[in-house]
Amino acid sequence: MADDGVYKSQFATGTSNGGLTAHPGGDRWRWESRIFAGACDEAAPDERPVYGALNYRREAFGAAPRFGSSYFRLTPETLTRATFCYPDSSAEPSAFGIADRCALVELAEAADTDPLDGHIEAQVHGPVRFDRDVEALVLDPSYRGTSVEHEAECLPCPVEWHPGFRLSIADLRRHPHYRGEAYVDLGAAIAPGDWLTPRVIGDAPRTGRYALQDLKKVWHCVARFGRLSGC
């Protein structure tokens, strides 16, 4: 990111904390084709929108922690080139909006959904530059003093910290039905002590022993039940 200076979509990076379907004929490609009436079908990867969420609840943890513990907070000016939908584009939404004509907050607040699923998706059109369009990168405090903090400081935007995610293994075991007993066991297996943090989950793939999609389910448990009120 520091080298490129811009935030890239999955079509350009090939990576995601969601489904890896950003390719011609894939689910992400199909969803964009539907939402934008085919306007992006032949677009180059760097011409496609990038995704985020509208933080209508003004959460310190960001608008959509389902997708990760850290986030970029964009400037108000980016609203003029953003479109929105509810629910998420993966759910075939029929409700859309733009910044000055949008009733999606009322829909989201009225819905009875899992807290990790209640986000209003945003699609930002045009480049998102770190030196122009980003107010701050907001990190989880488990990354203090790590290479993540060091590399974040190479970006041309401020670095801030939210209160943090941390879930004890004892608390994890109280929620076996949330994502499944297998992911409770996996969380216990990767924890070096009695706690799970974003850093612990982020380090796990480097061992080569765990499937990324399985670790994502462990993260969902931490994101759902491990929010700290202060740090």
Question: How would you describe this structure to a colleague?
Answer:
With about 230 residues, the chain is an alpha+beta fold. The protein is about 30% helix and about 15% strand. It contains 9 helices and 11 strands. The strands form 4 sheets. A 4-stranded antiparallel sheet has the order 2-6-4-5, covered by helices on one side. The longest helix has 14 residues, at about 210-225. The protein is globular, with a radius of gyration of 18 Å. The mean pLDDT is about 95.
Structure characteristics:
DUF3626; four-stranded antiparallel beta sheet; DUF3626 domain-containing protein
Structural class: alpha+beta
How does the overall form come out from the CA principal axes?
Answer: globular
- Low-pLDDT segments: none
Cα separation of the termini:
27 Å
- Percentage of helical residues? 25-40%
Q: Please tally the β strands and state the result.
A: 11
Largest beta sheet: strand ordering? 2-6-4-5
Number of helices: 9
Please describe the biggest sheet, giving its number of strands, its sense, and whether it closes into a barrel.
Answer: 4 strands, antiparallel
Radius of gyration: 18 Å
Tell me what portion of residues adopts beta-strand conformation.
15-25%
The helix/strand series, from N terminus to C terminus, equals EHHEEEEHEEEHEEHHHEHH
- Mean pLDDT value: 95
